[in-house]
Write a structure and sequence with these properties.
The strands form two sheets. Strands 1-2 form a two-stranded antiparallel sheet. The protein has helices at about 1-40, 55-65, 70-75, 145-155, 165-170, 175-180, 195-205, and strands spanning about 85, 90, 105, 105-110. The protein has about 220 residues and is mostly helical. The radius of gyration is 28 Å and the shape is globular.
């Protein structure tokens, strides 16, 4: 009888230990998923705005230098014909923007511009979804002052209805990143993509302040 009780107690002890091990294992799994969730949530720090006008304007100076480089301006012209070359001349074939920014009739951008750069000098560059901004959302960079461009970039009516998160994500758009891999013989933007992205996020998350507009005589104008 005593032997039976001892065996029964031993089975209960083993069962309790087994349950404890299983519980610890499950807790570990839950913790692992919790850590992953927290990591994802922490990514949202990019969308936390802490206003700092000085830091914001200084960051935008770097952003503006990139957006005024040929790699950006050529696809953000003031007219409906894209530009080309480091001298921002009109595209040799005079293609038109079209409603969706991808050309008109049989003259589509992708007829010549494929999903990657063509090998060699003076050959068509390429990237997936090659296009200009649409006719209803032209996003003109050409001729814009730093003040004007900063205001335009954060205006949903002019930027494709992008909020802060969408603007931050846009720095990694394939066509944006193409600017740093434009093909042989083309000048790169003045800073690296990593530096541009850092400045872009800094500008947006410190208030997206626009540099002060200046008059023709160099005097400061009201925002």
């Amino acid at each position: 009888m005593e032997l039976y009780k001892e065996k029964r107690q031993l089975r209960k002890t083993r069962f309790t230990v087994t349950l404890s091990v299983i519980a610890l294992f499950l807790i570990g799994i839950v913790s692992a998923f919790s850590d992953e969730t927290n990591y994802t949530t922490n990514e949202e720090i990019y969308a936390t705005v802490k206003k700092d006008s000085v830091k914001s304007v200084n960051a935008f100076k770097k952003v503006y230098a990139v957006l005024q480089s040929p790699r950006c301006v050529n696809c953000h012209p003031s007219g409906d014909i894209p530009l080309q070359g480091d001298d921002n001349r009109l595209h040799a074939m005079f293609p038109k923007r079209g409603t969706d920014g991808k050309g008109i009739l049989a003259m589509k951008c992708t007829n010549c511009h494929q999903t990657e750069n063509t090998t060699g000098l003076k050959t068509p560059p390429g990237s997936p979804e090659w296009h200009l901004p649409s006719a209803t959302m032209k996003m003109v960079f050409q001729g814009r002052s730093a003040h004007e461009l900063a205001k335009q970039l954060v205006d949903p009516k002019q930027n494709g209805n992008k909020d802060l998160k969408a603007l931050i994500a846009h720095a990694d758009d394939s066509l944006v990143k193409w600017g740093w891999n434009p093909g042989e013989g083309r000048t790169l933007p003045p800073i690296s993509h990593a530096e541009f992205k850092e400045a872009w996020i800094t500008w947006l998350t410190t208030g997206a302040y626009a540099p002060i507009q200046q008059g023709l005589d160099g005097s400061n104008l009201k925002n």
